Amino acid sequence: MSSPFNAVLRRGLLAGAFAGLTAALMSMLLVQAPLQASLGIEEARSHASGEHAHEEMFSRPVQVVGGMVAAVLVGVAIGVIFAVVFASVRHRMTARTDFGRSLQLTAVGFFAVSLLPAVKYPANPPGVGETESVSGRTLAYFSFIAAGIVIVLAAHHLRGYLAARGWSPSSSVTATAAATVVLTGVALWAWPANPDPIPADVPAALLWQFRLASLAELAGMWAALGFSFGLLNEPNRTEAPTEALAT
Fold first, then answer.
1. pLDDT for 86-98, tens place per residue?
2. Where are the domains of the chain?
3. Which residues form the signal peptide (predicted)?
4. What is this structure's pTM?
């Protein structure tokens, strides 16, 4: 017989697959149009400079399908991690149902892993960014994700600390929210800016269309993950001690 933790893990895998499929479909509907326009600008730039565009290993349709498959696989990985974290912190969350707890964890995950990095380092389409700066930009991006997770953990522990000191729920939430805003502001100020300038031939409207579409894709993935995991988990919820989920 499977353990409660294994059951939660399977639900995370299923919810992650659904979230990845949602992200893939949103990419097709929202991201592909500005992406194609950006590729056209990049190709025109190569022709204008007299360079010959290199032959791609895979055709554009194959790349699109590969990107959709990758989105599903990433969704599955995130779903598994989500399930492990949920099983570990379920008994510490304030929502009364597993559906509500799933939405709470989804909001935290989206804020720390997707929204904050998108504010500091918004997605750029092809043709924006120098090859030489890829390593530095990647390091800054993932370190900022780590900073977002640290901010969330600090806020969680601060709220628990204030509650243990007799603060009212409303006061502890207000103080925690204020501290989170301050820490977020410090992180946004402390991390280096994106070193790559925006080329003059990339229209601002196209740039922001791509950035907002990319963020919408991430938001759709997290929303699909939270709702589907909550719905899968809620019918199986018990009031037994949650520590059993992690065993």
1. 998 888 888 888 9
2. 4-128+200-246, 130-197
3. none
4. 0.84
